[in-house]
Amino acid sequence: MKTGKRFFIQVIATFIILFVPVFSFAKNYADANWRVYEIKSQLLEQGLYDSANNAFMDLFNTYDYRFAEGISLVTENIFCNLHKTWQKDSISIDFYFRRFARSYSADNLLNFFCKCADSSTIKKLQSQVIIYDSIFYTSVDTVLMNFVSRMHERDQKPRMENDYENMLIADSLNLIELEKLLQQYGTFPGVRKLGVSGMNEMKILIHHESEQILDKWYDVLMQLIIDGEFAPILIADIIDHAIFMNGYPINNKWATKYVKYGTAEFKGICEPVKNIEQTNRWRREIGLPPLEYDIKKRGVKYDEAEYRKYVQIIE
Fold it and tell me: DSSP character for 133?
């Protein structure tokens, strides 16, 4: 970004930030994510679109909610289900977009969340890019974002080139940096410092350090959900992946324990959990919907017997 534009954004932000509410971070954000599931399953899927919009308004007034699923549902409901335009409901649209802008740049807001919006609404939102970007750049730590992006680039380059030796080197170097970040912040930076894109990059970096996750970092990762710094699906996927990767080959067949949350699949089959009822309790604790609901939405099957044809499960 050019210096003049950035300066203008920072000046404008001193005024705009007054209109951004101050939230209490003592709340359990797993409850906010569970509320998104309730709105989706009990209101949106039942065609109760106005009630859903009211529920989302309450959610975004109560929590500093920043995650993609809820934001996607909000905008889809406004622009696709309710057919609202800027002329008809500028207050609601601007209410949401000012909150979304804390974790998404203006380009991402317009590219990702304007499905079904009419041309006049798009034009009006485009005219407010400077406002939304000012909110974004005063909400995140751009220096830290760039640092995490460089770590992510180092992580991805050898993987894209199938360079196993340099992949191990990259993971070792990134582990050192992750430990430094953990020491500096007492946790891993999440969506408030990095925005959603940076949070997703950080997730990938953590995801590739399987040996650290289940013991050394486990409590830190769970707290990130409670604090609203990471979407629960990201942490659940990190943990399930670590369980799978901490297995070992037996008779030329990968052997691993049951996963905890059932977030991933292998050959179109959901990786099995030991007890679905217990898994659903764990999923509820971090704000994820029941596994049966999730499997249906993902379009995968749950068949432990077929899964065992490919992967041995260690009891």
Answer: H
Q: How many CB atoms lie within 10 A of CB 239?
A: 24
C-alpha Rg value of the chain to the nearest Å: 21
Residue 22 pLDDT exceeds 50 = no
Instruction: For the chain, give the percent of residues with pLDDT over 90.
Output: 89
Structure tokens at 163: 């360079």
The type of residue at 311 is V
Triad 230, 300, 41: Cα angle to 5°: 60
Give the Å distances, CA to CA, from 37 to 75, 248, 283: 15, 36, 12
Q: Residue 73 is which amino acid?
A: L
- Whether 193 has a pLDDT exceeding 90, the answer reads yes
Q: What is the pLDDT of residues 140-180, one digit of tens each?
A: 999 999 999 999 999 999 999 999 999 999 999 999 999 99
Which residues are within 8 A (CB) of 239 and not within 5 positions of it... i.e. 6 or more apart? 213, 214, 218, 221, 259, 260, 261
Residue 23: which of 75, 59, 51 has the closest Cα?
A: 59
All residues at 6 or more sequence positions from 202 whose CB lies less than 8 Å from its CB, including other chains: 148, 188, 189, 190, 194
CA distance 227 to 65: 10
How do residues 255-283 score in pLDDT, each as one tens digit? 999 999 999 999 999 999 999 999 999 99
Task: Say which residue the tokens 């798009």 belong to.
Answer: 122
Helix (H) or strand (E) holding 77: none
